[in-house]
Amino acid sequence: MRIGLFATCLGDTLFPEAVRSTAVLLARLGHDVVFPPEQTCCGQMHVNTGYQREPLPLVRGFAEQFGDASIEAVVMPSGSCAGSVRHQHGIVAERYGDAALRAGVAGVQAKTYELSEFLVDVLGVTEVGAYFPHRVTYHPTCHSLRMLRVGEKPLRLLRAVDGIDLVELPEADACCGFGGTFAVKNADTSTAMLQDKLGNVAATGAEVCTAGDSSCLMHIGGGLSRLRSGTRTLHLAQILASTRSTPYVMQTDQLSEAAR
């Protein structure tokens, strides 16, 4: 299958390893991964903040970059960005676009997936040859859980990882408090929600807290580093890309170091 990889803004600027791991994983499974070089932001932050007309050029650009008929699927290591493409792009195109844009958006929406749902629903795999001998807990991000409804798919993938010690996160479905600009506009509430999440992560004794969105991991990871908890955050794609022959080497995350 020829797969178009969407990096996302956060992946491109702060967490390129999550994007790189997604490409490595998909290629290892036998697929042709292409990276449209002119891709930009999906426009999620604009829509979420109430600026629905402003991301029109971004929506148009996404449809153009990934609308190529040779690209059979569009995959991204982000539930929030996948949710934006599948749900928000249509709203923007319908309200502010023309017929051509609406058709282009609809075509791309139909083949856009978050990584875990693509692996399980489209490729039909849960065992991807991963090896990760560490104690791990999983945080289901709000967009993946409530908008995309990926459900148990990430957990099914993690349970099949060789060597992993997967432990359940208490109150897993509670929001971590990030929510993009929510964390800025409602800092006190966001911080209180984060403290609850950090307490639940600590209760697992996990070496790693993983999720399908780098944004939530950035928020949780910042809190964990300030507590000097010793627990690291790692994107789901990085765990799934790790194998016995090329294992992920646990090291202090540079972002966590900067936050200390």
Automatic annotation (TrEMBL):
Residues 4-85, 136-220 form the Cysteine-rich domain. InterPro entries: Cys_rich_dom (IPR004017). The lineage of its organism: Bacteria, Bacillati, Actinomycetota, Actinomycetes, Kitasatosporales. It comes from the Bacteria. Pfam families: CCG (PF02754). This is (Fe-S)-binding protein.
